[in-house]
Each structure stands twice: as C-alpha cells, then as structure tokens.
Amino acid sequence: MTGDPPAPWETGPPMERCRRVAITLEQCWHAVPGGTARAALGSVRALQQFTSLELVGVSARHRQPPSSTWSPSIEVKQLPLPRLALYESWHRLRWPDVEHATGRVDVIHATGMAMPPATAPIVVTVHDLAFLRDPSQFTRRGVSFFRRAIDLARRDASIVVCPSQATIDECIVHGFDPKKIRLVPWGIDPTVIESSAIMAMRSRLGITGRYVLWAGTIEPRKNLPVLLSAFEGIEDRDVTLVLAGPEGWNEQIDGQLGRLGSRVVRVGFVESETLSELQAGAELFIFPSRQEGFGLPVLEAMAQGTAVITSSGTSTEEVVGDCGVVVDPSDVDALRAEIDRLLADDVERDRLGRAGLNRATSLFTWEKTAKALQSAYEEAMA
C-alpha cells in the first residue's frame, strides 16, 4: 500500500487564490431553518458584498424554492436526491459529488452538519456540538447523523470554522485538530428602528405596557422553563414577557404558560424586521440558553441598544463581554434577581444598552466575517 491516491485538487498546477466556492444551503428548506440558516444566508450576502468570489449554492432536490424569508441571494443548484436520501448517501456512500450540480469549484463550504464528499478542499462550519453534550434532547437517528457528520468533518475538512471560542474548545475536546480550526464570528446588520414602527408593531401584535423579550426556537437547550419560573416571581407584575419564535421540539411549557396567563404573549415566528422592532422596544432581552454555537439573537438585541441578560459559561457570554449581565442558566433565583434589578434601574439599563450597541457594531461586522471566510477558503487550498 502506498497510501490514499491524491485528492483531485492536489493534482495539476497550483492555484494562487480561491475563485469559485460551492456553499451548502439545504437548511433553508428545513421545517425550522433556525440560526444555522440565518448564519449561512448572512455569510453569503457578506461574501457577495465584500469579496470578489464567485458563489454557487447547492441543495437536495426540491419541487419548490424555500420561503421568501429563507431564500438565498445566490443561485442554488440541486443534486438529484431528496434531502434524507442525499444526507444518507453523502455520509455512507460519499456520493453524489457537489460538483455534479455546480461544476468545478475551488472550495466546498459545508455550512451545516451534512458533509459532502471531498472532491475539492472542504471548509466546514461547526456551529455547536450540543448533541454530544446531551444526546437525550435529540432523536436516535439525529444523534447517529450528527456523529457521522463529525467523524467525516474531522477526517475530510481542510479547515473548520467555528463562530465562538466555546465551540472551538468543544471541537478540540472531541478530537478536532486545533491547527485546522479558525474562529469566525457572525456579523450584524444594524438597522435604526423608528418609534412609529415600534408603536405599529405593538398594535399589530397586541403588546401593551412594558415588556421583556425572548426570541428563538422553542427547544430544550433554550432553557425556557427556567426563564418562565424566574419571570413568574418578578416584582413588577405589570411587565409582559414576549416570546418570539417557532415551535421546535421536546419542550413542554404549557403548564407554566397557563399559570402566567396574560403576563406572557406568544407571537410565534416573526420576520426579521418585526424581530428588530420587538428588540428595539423591549426593556430587556433575556436569553438564558444552556448552550449556543454563537447566540445571534443576543447580538441582534445588542445592536438595537437593548440591555441583555444571558448565560454565563457559554458562547453568549463571549458575545456580550462586559456589556451585558450573565447568570448561571440553571439558577432561577439569580435570573429573577437580575430581571428585577434592571427593570428597576433605568440608568443601568440604558448604560448596558449603549455599551452593547457599541460592542455589537464595532466588533461583529459582516465584513469581518466575509474576510475571515475568504481567508479560510484560501488556507484550505494551500
């Protein structure tokens, strides 16, 4: 045996710069696209704006495009298999090639957990490894899929990009080569929300008086039972808790919601413009998640100048830095105390809001994300 044959990109004349990138965007068709789709679509727009790369999306076979909310800004080429068959074929048979749909590319960027065959250098985004920390929150099939994806990423990826140091640390613990890992945080598109837009949003959604906000997909690691327990006992009973986001999985909160009654308003999934209006109008944004790959809702709230309470020891603590309040996500009493303290202190709430806005708009830009991704692509080709 003389070892494995050279990969296709290891033969022929060397390329000085990455020119054409295939980007997997299958998550845009998921029932709950979530943060991974938002990050992928934001990254694509940033690469279009701040680099000269030619980008082409790739997905499974679909009869319909994704909804307009999740529609990519680049052309997406479809492979001949539907999603489940494609994922299984990629992970077990290492077929079909991405380039079967896209034509020749310099780099493949796998933006979700599905790992295509390495017919070109692969850059893979690992958002988080939550399924390894608590497999009970996922289906057996899901855990099996994720484990196979991680095995393939460790073996085949030329560069691994992670949105937070917390995710990098987890990747290293689970056997990834630290030399291949790059930190690439997501960015933010700050928008100024007029007071008239907030008033219209309130009228549309039936929100009156002061409110605090949570946003995300309703699923176990978002830790909503702890938030609801903390909110149930706060001092100011005239404050409303607004929950924004789609139904997810494996989270039973109906009993708590029933006890809270009209003190909680559920608005479900909202478009990004409405979410920005909700964030801008909130007294506080509260996000006590147990684990996040990054925590984009926290960054978005900071970009609206809203004070944030989030979880210590997680990636969201990295995002807020010293410009927000962090608490142990398992400590109901500590979370309740911080909600009470900030609701009663307009000066401190405003200070945190201003500091968070400055941090969000200065440190977390899509231009930085785009340049870091371009660098990762070129490293992968080296």
From TrEMBL:
GO terms for biological process: lipopolysaccharide biosynthetic process. One of its GO terms (molecular function) is glycosyltransferase activity. Residues 209-356 form the Glycosyl transferase family domain. Keywords: Transferase. Pfam families: Glyco_transf_4, Glycos_transf_1. InterPro entries: Glyco_trans_1, Glyco_trans_4-like_N. Residues 34-191 form the Glycosyltransferase subfamily 4-like N-terminal domain. This is Unannotated protein. It comes from freshwater metagenome.
